[in-house]
């Protein structure tokens, strides 16, 4: 997989942020601020950049490699009521290229005035390789800039402020390469809430800007980490049967990775994805199937027998011994509590290679 090219979002007129690719920025990450330019525009440092003429604040911009067509994705904070339109101004080999941008406001904003947005720039030409990008208000032509650091280490901590003792601890972890402290200066621009309920914690942005910070974290570390844990400092995801995430995550991969990409064009459904069971309603006829000794059957039907030798009855088998699994999309009341049942996964290690072998031999998938 390609290494992420991380580029900054440049705001319009007086505030433009530029970020070099992750590879190229490593050599200059410790360089003094403001000593280089991109497409003739001087670059400064900054992690929250205001887009001039708009109530929009750019957090970070990143090359999107996963969707086929090359894109630049920018995480931003926007005033939801503002009818904003954006442009991307890219620096490509010393030449400025302007493209229209699309944006979508994330649905989780908890009714605060500001919300998280993703601004997308489509790069249709394969010849364009941007090293920097400005997010500007549409129709604004003049740009200046501030750069955001591209190189990230293992653990990111977005810090607003803290006391001196906490800072000493953070300094220790940062010095030892365990934590990267990312200044979170949104409070200089927006009155943030200290909670998630607007009626209890007044402000214009939800919980110190938690959601844009989470989204930026995902993109920031996307190609530096196999997994990223998204939780607060007072929250811990702890394994129960093992001690570390490095033990837990391979187990989860083995347990849950039953969606086979190579099967995606095969007609039908992957029954390994059916792990939530609709409970059988009490006092209601439930369909069942049978295993029979054919020498005892006189008349068979869809569910059970109509007649058997000597009229012998069916033997009902307890669910603790065997269970019939019916794989289909059932309809059920919205308040139904589904029963998780992943017993089928016990067969996955045998089933997956066996099915793949047949599909390969039939010429339906590649080996």
TrEMBL record:
One Pfam family per UniProt: Glyco_transf_92
The protein's Enzyme Commission number: 2.4.1.-
Keyword Transmembrane annotated: yes
Molecular-function GO terms, alphabetical: glycosyltransferase activity
Record's keyword terms, sorted: Glycosyltransferase, Membrane, Transferase, Transmembrane, Transmembrane helix
Residue intervals passing through the bilayer: none
Keyword Transferase included in the entry's annotation: yes
Any one of the GO CC terms: cytoplasm
Subcellular location: Membrane
Membrane topology designation: Single-pass membrane protein
Main location: membrane
Top enzyme category: transferase
UniProt record similarity statement: Belongs to the glycosyltransferase 92 family.
Protein name in UniProt: Glycosyltransferase family 92 protein
Organism listed in the record: Cyprinus carpio carpio
Species lineage: Eukaryota, Metazoa, Chordata, Craniata, Vertebrata
């Amino acid at each position: 997989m390609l290494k992420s090219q991380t580029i900054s979002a440049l705001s319009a007129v007086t505030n433009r942020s530029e970020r070099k690719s992750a590879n190229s920025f490593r050599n200059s990450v410790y360089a003094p601020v403001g000593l280089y330019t991109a497409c003739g525009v001087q670059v400064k440092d900054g992690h929250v950049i205001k887009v001039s003429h708009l109530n929009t604040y750019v957090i970070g911009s990143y090359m999107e490699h996963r969707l086929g067509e090359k894109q630049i994705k920018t995480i931003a904070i926007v005033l939801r009521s503002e009818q904003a339109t954006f442009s991307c101004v890219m620096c490509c080999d010393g030449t400025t290229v302007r493209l229209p941008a699309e944006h979508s406001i994330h649905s989780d904003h908890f009714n605060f005035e500001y919300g998280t947005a993703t601004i997308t720039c489509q790069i249709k030409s394969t010849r364009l390789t941007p090293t920097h990008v400005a997010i500007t208000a549409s129709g604004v032509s003049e740009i200046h800039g501030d750069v955001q650091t591209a190189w990230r280490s293992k653990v990111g901590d977005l810090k607003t402020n803290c006391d001196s003792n906490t800072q000493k601890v953070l300094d220790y972890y940062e010095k030892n390469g365990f934590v990267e402290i990312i200044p979170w200066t949104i409070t200089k621009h927006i009155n943030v809430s200290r909670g998630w309920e607007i009626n209890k914690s007044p402000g214009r942005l939800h919980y110190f800007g938690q959601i844009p910070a989470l989204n930026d974290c995902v993109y920031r570390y996307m190609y530096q980490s196999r997994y990223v844990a998204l939780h607060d400092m007072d929250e811990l995801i702890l394994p129960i049967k093992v001690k570390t995430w490095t033990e837990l995550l391979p187990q989860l991969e083995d347990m849950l990775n039953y969606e086979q990409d190579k099967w995606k064009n095969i007609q039908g459904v992957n029954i390994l994805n059916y792990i939530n069971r609709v409970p059988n309603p009490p006092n209601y006829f439930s369909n069942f199937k049978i295993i029979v000794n054919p020498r005892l059957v006189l008349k068979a039907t869809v569910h059970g027998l109509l007649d058997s030798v000597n009229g012998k009855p069916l033997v009902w088998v307890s669910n603790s011994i065997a269970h019939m699994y019916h794989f289909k999309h059932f309809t059920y009341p919205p308040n139904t509590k589904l029963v998780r049942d992943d017993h089928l996964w016990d067969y996955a290690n045998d089933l997956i290679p066996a099915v793949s072998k047949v599909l390969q031999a039939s010429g339906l998938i590649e080996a």
